[in-house]
Amino acid sequence: MGLAASYLRGLLPRPAATTAPATVVRRDDVRIDPAHLLRYARVCGCTLTGPVPPAYPHLLGFAPALALMAGRDFPFRLPGLVHTRQVFTWYRPVEVDEVLDVEVSAANLAAHHRGATIDVLTRVRAGGDEVWLGRSTYLSRSVRLRSTVDAPAAPDGEPLPAEAWWRLPAGLGRRYAAVSGDRNPIHLSAVTARPFGFRTAIAHGMWSAARCLAALGGRLPERGEATVWFRRPVRLPGRVGFGARIGADAITFTLTDPADRLLLSGQVTAPR
Hints:
Layout lengths: L2 H7 L15 E7 L2 H11 L12 H4 L1 H9 L11 E9 L8 E14 L2 E12 L2 E12 L23 E5 L3 H9 L9 H4 L7 E2 L2 H12 L7 E7 L4 E2 L1 E9 L4 E6 L5 E8 L3
Antiparallel strand pairs: 1-3, 2-5, 2-8, 3-4, 4-5, 6-10, 7-9, 8-12, 10-11, 11-12
Helix pairs in contact: 1-4, 2-5
């Protein structure tokens, strides 16, 4: 199924569900296109001097994830989904010339005070060993669950002093959409974002997360887990401040707007 067909199927109503679907979508023998990786690096501010950036494998699973979420057994419709959290776990560096197998599934359908959430898991293997895991948490405000198990809340966070300010052009969403395949209308222009309640286009959460990890650069460990909480929309065009703190056990980082409002918070730790 192509991306356009998946988007269209994702518009259809869904039957009520109480558990995550058992569907698994796979892509085997995946090879990274160096030209595509270079375009990604340019959009996200990554330096290509060795292994692929830690957020890049997410793109290898984007089409399978969209096919999974477009299925009738996925409990949420695509319109209106909010990406609330992203976790990247890299168990070792992933090299550009590796042959990879990608598997996407869903888990952890849970009640939330604003609706319901679910995790979409992307596993990347090389030679049978899992080398990378992505966990994308999505919120649907239109689904309510009768459940005593609630989704975990984001931890409290305070903005860190900005060590760098980035100017984000109006066309950033279109540039990231071209490289990622994620052409959600809220990211493309103010005109296409307004029907969904946004005054302007907003940056992809995956771009914001990738740009923050790129800013950490050589401070990232060879084995690590980055957890990112998306707090507020990053408006386009706009200006954002990146701050980081290097601790003994974790790296913490934030993205703020000029009014010092927290847009994104994250941390990098050792893999669990």
